[in-house]
Amino acid sequence: MAEYKGILVFGELADGKLASITTELLGCGRKLADELKEGLSCLLASDAVGNLSKEAIAFGAGKVYVVEHPLLKEYQADSYMQVAEKLVKEISPRAILMGQTSLGRDLAPRLAFRLGTSLTTDCLNLSIDPATKLLVQTKPVYGGNAQAVFISKLMPQMVTVRSKAMSPLERDGSKKGEVIPTKVDIDTSKVRTKILETVKEEAVGIKLEDARVIVCGGRGVGGSEPFRTTLKELADLLHGAVGASRPPADNGWVPEAVHIGLTGKIVAPDIYIAVAVSGASQHIAGCSGSKHIIAINKDPEANIFREAEFGVVGKYEEVLPAFTKKLKELLAG
Amino acid sequence: MPVNMIVCCKQVPDPEAPPSAFKVVNNKMTLPPDIKPVIGQYEEFALEAALKIKDAAGGKITVIALGNNFVRDVIKKALAVGADELVLLEDGAFEDGDSWAIANALAMAIRKIGAYDIIFCGRQSSDWDAGQVGLGIAELLGIPAVTLARKVQVTDGKVKVERVIPDGYQVVEVAFPVLITVTSELGALRYAALKGIMAAAKKQPIVWKPADIGLEASQVGAVGRRSKLEKLFQPVKKGKCEIIGGETPAEAGANLAVRLKEAKLL
Ligand SMILES: Cc1cc2nc3c(=O)[nH]c(=O)nc-3n(C[C@H](O)[C@H](O)[C@H](O)COP(=O)(O)OP(=O)(O)OC[C@H]3O[C@@H](n4cnc5c(N)ncnc54)[C@H](O)[C@@H]3O)c2cc1C
Ligand SMILES: Nc1ncnc2c1ncn2[C@@H]1O[C@H](COP(=O)(O)O)[C@@H](O)[C@H]1O
């Protein structure tokens, strides 16, 4: 039996940089590895990794396994699986940390079943049980109405971690680490799916994840029009972005890319203005990291008022324009 | 060509029940008895995906649900909207399984059913929110899987799936048999017609115990788990909301702006 040691972070690249989730995982992984007195390594797989391996070291990795292959340019489960499976079997990590991202959601369960181990997805908190050295994994369940703590004795222990749940370390370019180029031959006969087309629906203006202010509309907004007029006007005034709960995205009032929540984007702006959103737990999962939540809803019993710091009870059609107008005056004067 | 489809549906506590209704008692989630369970939201979308294919190409839909104490008129909704068969893996032994135990039992049941072109699952269950069982079934059966489908079309033994990716979508082609997990933009499940409800009322589900799918009671449910549930708890909610008033809603809106300025949020 192999000895399982160390923590492996499955890294992701975004726009030529380390994805923010990867720096978060490295921050968390570093702490866990130090507690175990074991190493932290990071896998970076892409068509071209460039000097991002150095970045991974600057953010806390001790070893970086670099796998470069033209077939890794775009994520495909069957090719990424070959890379992940091979590396994990080679280095036998005690724990594998992945992001609860598009890639992590798709790859982590496959890998766990392939390796015959267990996986906890969407963790908010990880710690080491001092007695057993096992990973204590906390994840929200029942749409955020409760949290569950899981432990598994099977190795490697696998988790995916929600974005913005962990803090990255301060970048330190002077850190030393080892970069290990790793060769994986991808057997294309095992790639059973074919990507015919990839269509990006770029959002215009400020990206939701980067916005300091978000104006989020819910089903009660009633249609697509207000998202382009009253809600947008408020967002523009505050240099923010417009988001939505799931129903507006399902109804096609807004693009899917602005859907916030458990199954949408996770955001943490300074100010989150929820307009005609009831505040279902699954929605709150995506915005509870906001510094200040402000709610406008006609129903005084709406759950959003349990989450908000300030609120107005009333029809948004009447409340919102007056709010925006007054804000404009206050900001001007 | 008619398409053979299997849809995995779970009976769950209503995820849209008010958050205050959810209470953890002795490490288990409880809801007041007047809040009826439902078929999980994403499984309803999955069922709709299958029904759309049945509309377009014809075929057969078998719904499988694993659990215990199924409320018949809840789970029979699947038949009422147009599924052809309902298989219940129903036994006390199936209770409290983790993603691994559930996927394993469902994969065994699917092997027993035999012929299938597409297996549909929801992207995640509305109780454990794991998002694992579908991909687990695919791994156990050794078939390809495509996740987060918002549109599924079938042509000559091949499937074209539009899958949601960050800021867009992808069109993926894959041959039968395949497992597909479905997301909400596929569209809501259709309503049952009266005729469907009447037919469903008459139809009896097939019920299988662990032994019927070749498993021991010790391989399923709580004892078949790979991860241990240490604790289920509800974090305490923070502060309370300051409601800003006014003579009219508009005035309240203006007052809110003033209050935010006062609180230095702007
Ligand atoms: C597994 C799972 C995952 C999910 N993931 C997500 C997710 O990621 N994101 C998400 O948002 N949801 C998600 N949901 C759905 C979630 O449970 C709720 O159904 C959804 O969030 C409700 O959206 P809403 O608040 O916009 O609509 P509703 O619940 O219908 O609320 C509309 C609100 O608008 C108010 N209103 C109506 N008209 C007006 C008016 N004129 N002025 C002011 N107020 C008005 C009403 O009082 C009401 O409170 C998920 C569900 C499940 C089961
Ligand atoms: N007990 C069950 N019975 C039938 N299908 C299930 C069950 N549990 C999970 N599934 C299927 O697997 C999907 C993902 O579940 P999960 O991994 O629990 O999030 C669900 O949307 C269902 O389609």
In summary, what is this structure?
Chain A is 29% helix and 27% strand.
Question: What does this protein structure show overall?
Answer:
The complex is a heterodimer of chains A (333) and B (266). Chain A has 333 residues and is of the alpha/beta class. Chain A has 2 domains: 7-190, 3-Layer(aba) Sandwich (Rossmann fold), CATH 3.40.50.620; 208-332, Rossmann fold, CATH 3.40.50.1220. Helices cover 29% and strands 27% of the residues of chain A. In chain A, the strands form 4 sheets. A 7-stranded parallel sheet of chain A has the order 7-11-6-1-4-5-12, sandwiched between helices. A 5-stranded parallel sheet of chain A has the order 15-14-16-17-18. In chain A, helix 8 (281-284) links the parallel strand 16 and strand 17 (292-297). In chain A, helix 3 (77-91) packs across helix 4 (102-115) and helix 6 (230-237) runs parallel beside helix 10 (316-332). The termini of chain A are far apart. The model of chain A has no long low-confidence stretch (mean pLDDT 96). Chain B has 266 residues and is an alpha/beta fold. Chain B folds into 2 domains: 3-224, Rossmann fold; 238-266. Helices cover 27% and strands 30% of the residues of chain B. Chain B has helices at 41-57, 72-75, 77-81, 99-113, 133-141, 194-202, 249-262, and strands spanning 3-8, 11-12, 23-25, 28-30, 38-39, 59-67, 85-90, 118-122, 145-155, 158-165, 168-175, 178-182, 206-208, 228-233, 242-243. In chain B, the strands form 3 sheets. A 9-stranded mixed sheet of chain B has the order 11-10-9-12-8-1-6-7-13, with helices on both faces. In chain B, strands 2-5 form a two-stranded antiparallel ribbon. In chain B, a hairpin with a 2-residue loop joins strand 10 (158-165) and strand 11. In chain B, helix 4 crosses helix 5 (133-141). The longest helix of chain B has 17 residues, at 41-57. Chain B is globular. Chain B starts with a strand and ends with a helix. Classes of the chains: A alpha/beta (333), B alpha/beta (266). Chains A and B meet through helix 4, strand 7, strand 9, strand 10 and strand 13 of A and helix 4, helix 5, strand 9, strand 10 and strand 11 of B.
